[in-house]
Design a protein that fits this description.
Helix content is about 25%, strand content about 20%. The strands form five sheets. A seven-stranded mixed sheet has the order 8-9-10-1-11-19-12, with helices on one face. A hairpin with a 2-residue loop joins β4 and β5.
Amino acid sequence: MFRRRITLTAAALAAASLALAGCTAQSTDQNAEAALAVDFDNLITTTESGTAPVDEVTWNLPYEPMSLDPQFGYNYAENTATANLCESLLRMKPDFSVEPGLASGVTQPDDTTVVYTIRDGVTFWDGTPLTVDDVVYSLDRQVGETATSYFSSYFQNVESVEATGPNEVTVKLTQPDVLFTQAMATAAGAIVQKAAAEAQGEAFGTPDGGLQCTGPFSLEAWNSGKSIELAANPAYWDGAPLASKLSFSFIADESTAVNALRTGEVDGQYFYLPPAGLSQLTDSDEVTVTFGDSLVFWTMMTTNFDGGLGDDRIRQALSLAIDREALTKVVFQGAGIPATTLAGPAYWGYEEEKFAKAFDGFSADPDIEEAKQLVAEAGTVAPIVLAVQGSSAVHEQTANVIQAAGQAIGLDIQTKVIPVEQFGNLYFDPAAREGIDGFFTTQYGSFADPTDVYQMFASTDSHNYAGWDHADDAIFAARAETDEAARADHVIDAQQTITDELPWLPLAYEPVTLVQNDRISGATASFAYLYTPWAATLGGVE
């Protein structure tokens, strides 16, 4: 049964706003008036291409990548860098549509066979040609139960990957799989040089092992703890970039990053959460802030169903006690909108009318009495421990909101701060999640199909950290359904179950926040920057 959500009291919201208000209490109305006026109906996908060559562009990453090997790139810093290094078979365009990439063409003779024609004339940075063997190797290493790729869930129905011609690779599937075919426009479809990867082994993609790909920039140096230096690839098949050098820094502290952008020490950054001091950037005469079309949503994941969040009624009650409208205005500074489901309108790449009708059935209306009643029905509840990322005002302030909501309905919610450099371990390391009942995250599906979001709850998916599997039938049916109308029906069934039981609590939909120094332009503004060579069109402004 779906339960309607509830608005938090003004007193609880005031507590959440203290940090953003410089520890000076302000009313909800005052904070709402100070919120940024983001036009969510007209989010941007691209910025005007640079027109002049530039010697160097400095770009900040929110932390140092763990690896530049694309199979280990399921996170923001990693994908931001590798998108300009290692290209995929298909390319995601800024509007989330797909065009040819390293594959100049793709055909499907039947529902379980996908044939890729490999583009002629493409070379790796060392000058050697891209071959079908490189493509087979790059895909095949992500297949099977022992595969270590963070994208291995997309390959679970792959039976074989074979070279079937001098420029042809054929993938055979055990059943139709609409996620695999779309994932080839993400880092899951990225191609590396087989010889280099085999020679370097586990060091491949690390500061000690180097990298070898085909993208518009090559890896010049990785100075561990300091920077990653990329050099323009003059032989790039799609045209050499205007920036001769692209240098990445790793400033994790939000205030320090904002100051570096304002002073010109750093030329640009993508923020996956609106930083404290965002208004300092929007008001600056030195930088331009662009809010881009996005697939990102802010959510609270349950990672331990044996703890305080294990009872459906507790998750439902907590959701009923959160004012998402106020949260997006105060905590997100206006750079967010309330989320009532995980996969919002940005995902409706097909059957928009069906998805919109289902979406309209969910509400954010208040019902504090129902929330209290659910807690009473659940009985004694253990303390709930939530992991909070350090160096993030949004994490800290959302935790304040959730704690206040819990207190208002009789729940004891505690927090544990995890350094930003270690926070990514929560996604893949069970040991890192010990003693934690849930955590906040900017999560996303990788393309505009809500199937990709709800697939994360399948019992076979690597993102299903806590083993919640109550929507398997609908999820598996959706993934295997090539007819879009029928697939939408299955997705909507899965969405209903997931939104009723709330293994993850949807909180907000958020845009990409792109900051560029006014001396440059051209970066991709949409979520596609994680998978497309966003810096290839980056250049000076004449």
